[in-house]
Automatic annotation (TrEMBL):
Presence of keyword DNA-binding: yes
Domain of life: Bacteria
InterPro entries on file: OmpR/PhoB-type_DNA-bd, Sig_transdc_resp-reg_C-effctor, TPR-like_helical_dom_sf, TPR_rpt, WH-like_DNA-bd_sf
Domain OmpR/PhoB-type residues, every copy: 10-106
A biological process term (GO) from this entry: regulation of DNA-templated transcription
Extent of the TPR repeats: 391-424
DNA-binding in keyword set: yes
Keyword terms of this UniProt record: DNA-binding, TPR repeat
GO molecular function, one term: DNA binding
PROSITE patterns in UniProt: OMPR_PHOB (PS51755), TPR (PS50005)
Cleavable signal peptide: none
Descriptive protein name: Tetratricopeptide repeat protein
C-alpha cells in the first residue's frame, strides 16, 4: 500500500487547486484544463508516488522512457513542459533538488489527511468505459518494395476509421498509433503508454497484383494474441480484405455486434481501386500538413478525381487542402483557390451526406471561407453523431463552435480530439483551436500554454503563430521574439488586412480578442511597403 498526503477520489488525484485525471492525462483547475503529453504524465505520476521524496534522474528516465536509452537533455525538456502546464505554480509543484533529481511539492500545497490507496498508477492499461479499447499500429511491409508502404498505411487508416465508428469501441486515432512506427516495443508497454487494452499489428507483402496481410490482435494485459489470421487478396479486392479483417477483429472483441453496424462499415467510398490508391497516397502526404505535403496531396487527389469524379472523400480532402492553403497565405490568388475549395466541398456534400469525414471537412470549408455557420454546425453535429470517436471529426466540431462564438463547447470537442489522438506530433489544428478558444473565453495565460504547444507541434502553421502572439499580447507578456518570428514567416502580416480578411467569417468576440492581442503584442496596423503583396479578400457566398 502507498500512503500519499493527497486526496485521491474516483475523479482523479487532487492536490491544492489541481486535479490530475491519469486516464486522460489531464490537469484540471476550475475552468482550466491542460492535456499532458504521455511522458510528462509519467514523470508527474512518478513524483506523486514518491510522496515528496527525491526521485533521481535515472529513475524518471526509466519510468517515462520504459528503460530505453535516451539523451540526458530529454528529461529537462519534459520537466519544463510539466512546469508550464502548472503555470506560475510549476516551480513549486515540480521542485529541482540540485545534484540529486526532482521531488513533488504538491503535497505541501494541500495537506489533508492521508488516504490509503493500492497504487496511483494502474497495473495495466486502464480499460475504456466505452467498451473495448484498441490501437491499430502501423503495419510492417515485407520485402524491398517501398511502394508497399502507402498500401499498408491506407489499410491501417481504413481499419481505424471502420472500427472507431462502432460506438462502444474506443479506438486511438492514427497519429498516436503511428508514433510507434519502426519501434520494437513490447505490446504491454504500448498498451501502457497508449492506455489501450488491445493492439492490432500486421505485415503486408505485395507480389505483383496480389497482397498478403498477416494480422494479430494482441491483449496487452495478458501479452498474448487474442486472434491471428492471414489474408490473401488481389489489389482489386482491397475492400473485401478490409471487410474480412474488421469483421474478424469485431468478432473477437464483440461477438454480439449488430448486423446494422457491420453493414454500415461496408459502405464503399469508391468502387475504383486505382482512384482509391491515389487517395491513399494523398492521405499519407497530409500527415503532417506542410506547404510541400499539401501540394503533393493535391496532385494525388487530382489523379483520384480524374479516375472517379464523384469520389466524395477525395472531393472533400481536396476542398480541405485548398482551404488550408488559403488559411496559411500560400497561394498567390487566394480568391481563385477559395472558389475552387467551395466548389469541391459542395460537390463532396452532394455525393455523401452521411459520411462523417466528408461532413467534417466540408464544415470547416464552410466556416472558414464563406462563414456559413448554421450549415457548418449542422454538419459537425451530424458528423459527431455518426463518428463520435474520430479525432478529426471532433477537431472540426471544435473549430465550428469556436467560429460560432461558443468557446466552451469548442474546448469540449477539441479536448476530446486530443484525448483520442494524444501522441500526434503534429496536432496543430486542435492545439491552435484551444489557444483561440481560451482567448475568447478570457483566459489568455492558458491560451499562451496552448499556443506554445501548437507551435511546437506545427511550426509551419501561421495560424498557430498568430494565436500565440495574440495570447502573449492579451496576457501582458513579452512578445518581441514571437512577433519577430511571425513577421519573418509572413512579412506582410498587418492588422488592417487581417481584420478585413476575417471580418466576414469570424465572430465579433473572436476577431476583437485576436486583433486586440496582436495590437498589444506589436503587430503593425499597416503592411510594410517592402513586403510581398498581402492576401486578397475572399469573395464567397
Amino acid at each position: 500500500m502507498v500512503c500519499l498526503p493527497l486526496n485521491m477520489s474516483e475523479d482523479g488525484i487532487r492536490f491544492g487547486r489541481w486535479r490530475l485525471l491519469p486516464r486522460t492525462r489531464t490537469l484540471v483547475a476550475g475552468d482550466e484544463r491542460v492535456v499532458l503529453g504521455g511522458r510528462a504524465a509519467d514523470i508527474l505520476l512518478a513524483l506523486i508516488e514518491a510522496d515528496g521524496a527525491v526521485v533521481d534522474k535515472d529513475a524518471l528516465i526509466r519510468r517515462a522512457w520504459a528503460g530505453r536509452t535516451v539523451e540526458d537533455g530529454n528529461l529537462p525538456v519534459q520537466i519544463a513542459a510539466l512546469r508550464r502546464a502548472f503555470g506560475a505554480e510549476g516551480a513549486e509543484i515540480v521542485i529541482t533538488v540540485p545534484g540529486r533529481g526532482y521531488r513533488f511539492g504538491g503535497a505541501r500545497l494541500a495537506p489533508p489527511a492521508p488516504i490509503q490507496l493500492a497504487a496511483v498508477r494502474p497495473a495495466g492499461p486502464e480499460p475504456s468505459t466505452r467498451g473495448p479499447s484498441l490501437a491499430v499500429l502501423p503495419f510492417r511491409t515485407a520485402g524491398s518494395d517501398a511502394d508497399q508502404t502507402h498500401i499498408a498505411d491506407g489499410l491501417v487508416e481504413d481499419l481505424i476509421t471502420a472500427l472507431s465508428r462502432i460506438r462502444w469501441f474506443f479506438v486511438l486515432a492514427r497519429n498516436s498509433a503511428f508514433s510507434f512506427r519502426g519501434r520494437d516495443v513490447p505490446a504491454s508497454e504500448i498498451g501502457r503508454e497508449l492506455g489501450v487494452r488491445y493492439v492490432v499489428t500486421g505485415t503486408v507483402r505485395r507480389a505483383g497484383e496480389r497482397v498478403r496481410v498477416n494480422v494479430d490482435l494482441i491483449d496487452t494485459v495478458e501479452g498474448v494474441p487474442a486472434w491471428s489470421e492471414r489474408f490473401d487478396h488481389t489489389l482489386d479486392e482491397v475492400f473485401a480484405l478490409q471487410d474480412r479483417i474488421v469483421g474478424s477483429i469485431v468478432a473477437a472483441l464483440e461477438p454480439g455486434l449488430r448486423r446494422a453496424e457491420i453493414e454500415r462499415l461496408r459502405r464503399r467510398p469508391t468502387e475504383l481501386p486505382r482512384a482509391y490508391e491515389a487517395y491513399l497516397r494523398a492521405v499519407a502526404c497530409m500527415h503532417p500538413m506542410t506547404r510541400d505535403n499539401c501540394a503533393a496531396a493535391l496532385g494525388f487527389l487530382d489523379q483520384a478525381l480524374a479516375i472517379d469524379p464523384d469520389f466524395a472523400l477525395a472531393l472533400a480532402a481536396a476542398a480541405y487542402c485548398r482551404m488550408w492553403r488559403v488559411s496559411q497565405a500560400f497561394p498567390d490568388d487566394t480568391e481563385a483557390e477559395a472558389a475552387a475549395a467551395i466548389r469541391l466541398a459542395e460537390a463532396a456534400l452532394a455525393q455523401a451526406r452521411d459520411d462523417p469525414q466528408v461532413l467534417a471537412q466540408v464544415a470547416i470549408v464552410f466556416v472558414y471561407l464563406v462563414h456559413r455557420l448554421d450549415a457548418a454546425l449542422l454538419l459537425v453535429k451530424r458528423a459527431v453523431e455518426l463518428h463520435p470517436n474520430s479525432a478529426m471529426t471532433r477537431s472540426s466540431a471544435g473549430w465550428a463552435y469556436l467560429y460560432a462564438d461558443q468557446p466552451e463547447e469548442a474546448i469540449r470537442h477539441l479536448e476530446e480530439a486530443l484525448r483520442l489522438d494524444p501522441l500526434d506530433p503534429g496536432a496543430g489544428e486542435p492545439l491552435t483551436g484551444m489557444c483561440y478558444a481560451h482567448l475568447v473565453a478570457g483566459r489568455p495565460q492558458t491560451a499562451v500554454r496552448w499556443g506554445e504547444r501548437a507551435i511546437a507541434g506545427s511550426p509551419e502553421r501561421l495560424s498557430a503563430h498568430r494565436a500565440y502572439v495574440a495570447a502573449l499580447g492579451l496576457a501582458g507578456l513579452s512578445a518581441e521574439a514571437a512577433v519577430t518570428h511571425l513577421m519573418t514567416l509572413d512579412p506582410a502580416f498587418n492588422l488592417t488586412d487581417y481584420r478585413h480578411l476575417h471580418s466576414r467569417r469570424a465572430t465579433t468576440r473572436l476577431l476583437a480578442a485576436v486583433v486586440e492581442g496582436l495590437r498589444r503584442a506589436g503587430i503593425p496596423e499597416r503592411p510594410n511597403p517592402s513586403a510581398r503583396p498581402t492576401l486578397r479578400i475572399v469573395r464567397g457566398g
